[in-house]
Design goal:
By secondary structure, the chain is α/β, with parallel strands linked by helices. It has 11 helices and 7 strands. Strands 3-4-5-6-7 form a 5-stranded parallel β-sheet. The protein has a two-stranded antiparallel ribbon with strand order 1-2. Helix 4 packs across helix 7.
């Protein structure tokens, strides 16, 4: 593990809201206390993301999936903080700040909203809390992806746009499926129209992922990637006015940047777009679960959140999820910070020599607000009788 963390376990209820199930599970959590001090300091509580639940998804009957909700996760956090304050000397009377990115950022914001007595504030990075039920235009996500590619190279987005029809035309020819399978170095050959649609979906998701992780330095969040990976991809997509065969060969070179930057991959698997650690299966676990599209806005307020306090919403303009995030101040204490050169929760990543100035400014803004929350917390203690 990195960051000098230690793994611990605590006993948690599977269901915090029912009364006829008393089953528990072992909640894993990490503690990094190298720089922590007992007196007059604070605790940063990182609200975990959707990763590392693959085993759970593969080994859970759909009738139990009702426990995989944000409400249950927030209750887990509340119980864990109570446990930590009770068991760690010096933690009992310290302020706690929730910090999270992506889904974890949504949880951080919602945790402050639902459990304001547990955390004095929250930093919600790349948290698309408004990406529900017509709160934002439905096309805003892909519009940002297109903009990222258009700005990263001449004719890049146009080459991608033309590639969809090129795939369809080739797939309709006698040897087209075989040629596409060979040209794109697919691990499993295409055999029918359903495979072709799956191929298109996989390529589309690849472009989305590149937009999410368009970081200014080498990284391996979803895949091992070069700095500014979209610019590297667009080097192969400069000319949209070529034959279908040449265009798809160029598309392969572009895909190879994402899937084979290490040079170790022998073929491309269209069933995978990210590393297994991300826990992407969690996004599609809803098989057998009846959706409630209005529930999120009912339980968390949708855009009617001005009664809450002390939440920072940070978003990178390169990140397609920013389209569903809070990008303007709502009140003096529900504030937004935008990072023009930032991709998905860049501000939460470790400091890097290639960090753009905009993310350094954003981090300073975030720290300034968090220090104020801490001062307010200790000031409130001195006022109590």
């Amino acid at each position: 593990m990195s960051y000098d963390t230690n793994l611990h376990l605590s006993e948690e209820l599977v269901d915090h809201f029912g009364f006829n199930i008393d089953k528990t599970f072992k909640q894993r959590y990490l503690i990094a206390d190298k720089h922590w001090k007992k007196d007059g300091r604070s605790i940063l509580f990182y609200t975990g993301n959707e990763g590392d639940i693959t085993w759970f998804c593969n080994n859970t009957d759909s009738k139990h999936l009702n426990f995989l909700t944000s409400e249950q996760a927030l209750a887990d956090f509340a119980e864990l903080i109570k446990y930590l304050r009770r068991t760690i000397p010096g933690a009992k009377n310290q302020p706690v700040i929730a910090i999270g990115g992506s889904y974890g950022g949504m949880l951080a914001a919602w945790f402050r909203m639902k459990y304001p007595h547990m955390v004095v504030g929250a930093l919600a990075a790349s948290a698309p809390i408004w990406q529900f039920e017509n709160m934002v235009p439905c096309g805003v996500f892909m519009k940002i992806v297109t903009t990222d590619f258009r700005k990263s190279g001449p004719n890049c987005s146009e080459s991608i746009r033309k590639s969809w029809d090129a795939i369809s035309r080739l797939a309709r020819t006698g040897s087209g499926l075989h040629w596409l399978s060979e040209a794109l170095h697919l691990c499993t050959p295409l055999t029918n129209s359903q495979d072709v649609q799956h191929l298109k979906d996989w390529i589309s998701e690849t472009w989305v992922n590149l937009a999410m992780v368009d970081y200014p330095y080498e990284s391996n969040f979803l895949q091992p990637l070069p700095a500014w990976p979209i610019k590297v991809v667009c080097q192969y997509l400069k000319n949209p006015n070529v034959s279908d065969l040449q265009l798809l060969q160029n598309i392969f070179q572009a895909l190879n940047v994402y899937y084979n930057y290490s040079g170790q991959v022998r073929c491309l698997n269209i069933s995978e777009t990210a590393t297994g650690n991300l826990g992407s299966l969690g996004w599609s676990y809803q098989w057998g679960v009846r959706p409630r599209p209005s529930w999120i806005t009912a339980v968390y307020g949708g855009k009617n959140i001005s009664s809450h306090t002390n939440i920072i919403f940070s978003n990178g303009e390169l990140d397609p999820w920013s389209g569903g995030g809070v990008t303007k101040d709502i009140t003096d204490t529900l504030v937004a910070v935008t990072i023009p050169d930032g991709a998905h929760h860049l501000d939460l990543r470790a400091s890097n020599a290639f960090d753009p100035t905009t993310v350094l400014v954003a981090r300073s803004f975030e720290v300034r607000h968090m220090k104020q929350w801490i001062r307010d917390f200790y000031a409130s203690l001195t006022k109590k009788p």
